[in-house]
Amino acid sequence: MMMARKQDVRIPTYNISVVGLSGTEKEKGQCGIGKSCLCNRFVRPSADDFHLDHTSVLSTSDFGGRVVNNDHFLYWGEVSRSLEDCVECKMHIVEQTEFIDDQTFQPHRSTALQPYIKRAAATKLASAEKLMYFCTDQLGLEQDFEQKQMPDGKLLVDGFLLGIDVSRGMNRNFDDQLKFVSNLYNQLAKTKKPIVVVLTKCDEGVERYIRDAHTFALSKKNLQVVETSARSNVNVDLAFSTLVQLIDKSRGKTKIIPYFEALKQQSQQIATAKDKYEWLVSRIVKNHNENWLNVSRKMQASPEYQDYVYLEGTQKAKKLFLQHIHRLKHEHIERRRKLYLAALPLAFEALIPNLDEVDHLSCIKAKKLLETKPEFLKWFVVLEETPWDATSHIDNMENERIPFDLMDTVPAEQLYETHLEKLRNERKRAEMRKAFKENLETSPFITPGKPWEEARSFIMNEDFYQWLEESVYMDIYGKHQKQIIDRAKEEFQELLLEYSELFYELELDAKPSKEKMGVIQDVLGEEQRFKALQKLQAERDALILKHIHFVYHPTKETCPSCPACVDAKIEHLISSRFIRPSDRNQKNSLSDPNIDRINLVILGKDGLARELANEIRALCTNDDKYVIDGKMYELSLRPIEGNVRLPVNSFQTPTFQPHGCLCLYNSKESLSYVVESIEKSRESTLGRRDNHLVHLPLTLILVNKRGDTSGETLHSLIQQGQQIASKLQCVFLDPASAGIGYGRNINEKQISQVLKGLLDSKRNLNLVSSTASIKDLADVDLRIVMCLMCGDPFSADDILSPVLQSQTCKSSHCGSSNSVLLELPIGLHKKRIELSVLSYHSSFSIRKSRLVHGYIVFYSAKRKASLAMLRAFLCEVQDIIPIQLVALTDGAIDVLDNDLSREQLTEGEEIAQEIDGRFTSIPCSQPQHKLEIFHPFFKDVVEKKNIIEATHMYDNVAEACSTTEEVFNSPRAGSPLCNSNLQDSEEDVEPPSYHLFREDATLPSLSKDHSKFSMELEGNDGLSFIMSNFESKLNNKVPPPVKPKPPVHFEITKDLSYLDQGHREGQRKSVSSSPWLPQDGFDPSDYAEPMDAVVKPRNEEENIYSVPHDSTQGKIITIRNINKAQSNGSGNGSDSEMDTSSLERGRKVSAVSKPVLYRTRCSRLGRFASYRTSFSVGSDDELGPIRKKEEDQASQGYKGDNAVIPYETDEDPRRRNILRSLRRNTKKPKPKPRPSITKATWESNYFGVPLTTVVTPEKPIPIFIERCIEYIEATGLSTEGIYRVSGNKSEMESLQRQFDQDHNLDLAEKDFTVNTVAGAMKSFFSELPDPLVPYSMQIDLVEAHKINDREQKLHALKEVLKKFPKENHEVFKYVISHLNKVSHNNKVNLMTSENLSICFWPTLMRPDFSSMDALTATRSYQTIIELFIQQCPFFFYNRPISEPPGAAPGSPSAVAPTVPFLTSTPSTSQPSPPQSPPPTPQSPMQPLLSSQLQAEHTL
What we know:
Helix content: 40-55%
Largest sheet: 7 strands, mixed
Shape: elongated
Structural class: alpha/beta
Number of helices: 56
């Protein structure tokens, strides 16, 4: 109890009485002044506990209840509050009122009968067991509420709150209220207790009443006035706390806050609480189907929920919840509506896509039409209840179909109208696209390669601009250009085939000379199909070079008709008809029929070969089988690391026939070993029949030493390897390109690619390279070749079906996949005929090397190229070989209606008549001809069989036994010496015993140092000897000269079956094996022995050989060659110069002239023969000393009967002038130090040296380039055609010579022209040993250029640019920046970025056009340089990518922005308007060809 008292002392307790106007309705009006609401809000401030209705009219029972307890005051209870000074206090609240009887409407009688004024002023209140009051509902139901008694049943009042209602009360006069309050105040004042005036209902207050109340308070000893509103809970606590501070004098004076200021604070508090509560609701409630009960339980413990319910109450909280639910439902419905409206156009497109069906229908009629469609229910759902958004369908998320009643809404009608408009616009645009395409197809101004900027004015009209977007008509134009370009290229390719005679007469090789390229362009220049590609000169030149590559190296892959090459079709037809013996043997020898064999040589010293072999074997299966493209191959590896001339290290053994070779190196020494070994292996097989090692596919691979991170050494090795690979014409793989790690780890993908290449080479060599064995030759009576033209409009199946369906047709035993055997009755006996069916380009390779008894040549009567190829083929066929011409037509009606078919048929008949051949025509509509039509031809072949075989034998022997060196160097000579024996090892010095003739000649060996390559390779000089020496051997591909041998004359007996005829390989520069005699078949009695030990040469050469004749036993026909100059420039080709008296066997002989070619007998063949003698025969590579000797002899004039040069008579003057000018350049000049400018009298130490020697870190730009560019930018930016127009060569040479002597040369003082300075600058880059754009970077640039996305392409190019060597990068940046500035003046100098790139890319990149990849990338090189010039700010100065105005995005030919981005010396010359249109840009192939020719002629 003591502690309780002390605690009570600490917490003061105050008893406060609330008084004010009370009484009957007459006295107070229809409602009270708000005393109860004021007490309620203070005692129970929570909004849920606040009640507005507190009635004073009670029944007698309620008045007598324990709450009222027959008293006219209410006990509201005890309240604890913390005041402003943070001191807690307790307050008991009592309300003095007057209760009215609900029966009499008079005040209830109570124990105190005093009037309200006196009763309200009482300070001592007592009421035993009086309960605390809550609300009116408590009366009579006290047990349902908390029952708390007034403490001790009595209270001593400490102060009064005097309430004044300032609202406009009903039936109450405010002045009367003030009078009552005044009287009440007077009574309260007598108690000496503190009084605070409380203005109630200020939220409805009248301003006058408030003023009057304040005036009243001022008049009464300056009473404290507090403006309150119990409903809004404004200043309620302030009123009671103010009274407490008056009661307790020790407390400070309370600050009275005006009502509106307090109301503002309270509103802000409520608004904050509301926002927090709404956030809470939005976070918890996500579904519009949530209910209040569940959500309120979830929010019960949240302070946001509690604060808002405290201030505003549960009902308002629920109301906000329901608003949120309604909003969620509305949003859900709108989302569904948007989905339905978005799907509605798709439904229209699917159900009513036809404009003609709905063009004039309203939405209502269209709705009915939709219901009739079969797929209506796929798109729409018909609901039983409508509208759809008021049904449960809104919650059916699985059903995405559109409610059909949605069609009745306005948005749906608008979408329907939009659909109609879209259909109408699409029809209009389709009409415009069609009209645009028709304009393109009919316009004569649209030519292949014409830029859109030039074609726009001829094509576009207003309708096109209105209905078609730029991207649309640009896309149509681009596709049309692609079509006409592809068609023009196809037609141009057909044109090249129509001029097949020209290409074969020129005898082109991998590096055609400038003169021959000029002849080709001169001959084709007037053709419309040549002119059609005028704007695509680079592509046209690439097509010409590609066709030249096909002529020089004809395969199925290089065939223009690939993959529909005739050879591939024939192989398929024959393989499907027969199972070859070789295939059968292979199946018998191998357990797995899908296994093929690959023999691979791995060459590398110091353990490289063994290590790589082990790594490859690790990739194989347990039985050394390798999988390529799903097929199993047996892989046999032969690592070689020593001297290849020793048998143990030989490339080839009796059990190992190599298909390819991997050459490994990691140093200069190992690279020297590779080159030396390849040279030795090729030399060792040049005199053999199996000289296929000359064409063995090679792959050069760089592998790094372990731990070697020297970038400079690696770069040097890569460059040297690339140079060697280009000379060897083989594939080069470095660690970056091949994916081979620096630890020499092999990459399985790269090995697979190498093996695939070997398989392709293996298949190509097997096409026509298989030489018939002696046994096969004995088994066959006749060899016939049937020639078909690739791309002809007929089926090879129809042509071959009579042959393959013949009962006598069998598989060929010679191993060729294009041959069959026929056994046909010819005359009185049956003959075995080997029929080889080949394309013309495959037939060219066997025309002179292989024994052929006759040709059946097919051509299409409606294709010029077909007959042209036939003429080119027949030109080189000897006139003793029977020919059967077969014309394929579309039938008699087509021949009558088609002029071309009639002309082709007539020409074919005339050719056949002139060459004494046979001619027939076969309608393609009736291709099932019979073999009988060829029987007359077969009879002709049988009659000429002996003379053909003798001629063939003579040609081989003449080449083999020739005593002149010219035979070896003649590109037309098909075979090396038959008795040139090269030792298989260095110890094998004795010739084999089966040699027919003794031979004293030995191979000239290289010097010891060079041949053994013992010297160290230092830089490029170390490899210079290897490459130059080896390149000459590769180009000539002939054995070294040998000493003359005694001439031999012999006779050939009747039986020729033991002679192996031999043939050349299928490449024009290859060296084929010569005929060898079998070791066991040699009989000296079969040959005539020479009688004279010394033979004196004749004035007139006579090549005599004997041929057995079938008619008489032992009769021999002797054939003499009375022509001194052998055709085709192959030397005299004499076999023997003996007189006929030197024959041991004196038999009667009949003299027959040596056969000539059909070109000499037929006027329709060889129409371009005049070009043959205008050039050096054969290869366009550098001339050897023997070729030079031939030219010297030719320059001295021809002697004898054959002095007249054939094929030059009756030629027109224009062509004769061309030929004369070309012949002047036939003799190649002495090599010069640099190919671009002749420096006969001085040697430069500045020009033609590596770039690193003329730059320093302080001066990264060569001073000569810097001077030239400064001069050009100061004086020449307005020069028309700068860099395109060539400067004077002598002035350029003078400029370089002067600068070489004085690096401080002032160009302005010397008065050089701008074109001279520009040309000298270009020459500087042309003379660099390596191009400014390194070869190793060019492949990456081309790959990056292939990216279609323009922005990605530019970023990829920029990444490649960062990999440039530092010196190259700085100079390249300087030059490109200069060219960018030049292009900005293109309106004056006419040099756009495209023109500059055309002029500069060959100088900066210098690609090797001996590879097909470089040919096809020609256009890419030019475009890459053009992009560097256009986007120079982006590549070098980190500026954003510029979009050229007026050009399609990504167009490389677009003109760059006209504002220069670099600050440099301004041009001092005034730009002048162009006087003439810019000339056609020079073909990018021409500078290359020019530089190639000049490089070849500088020896």
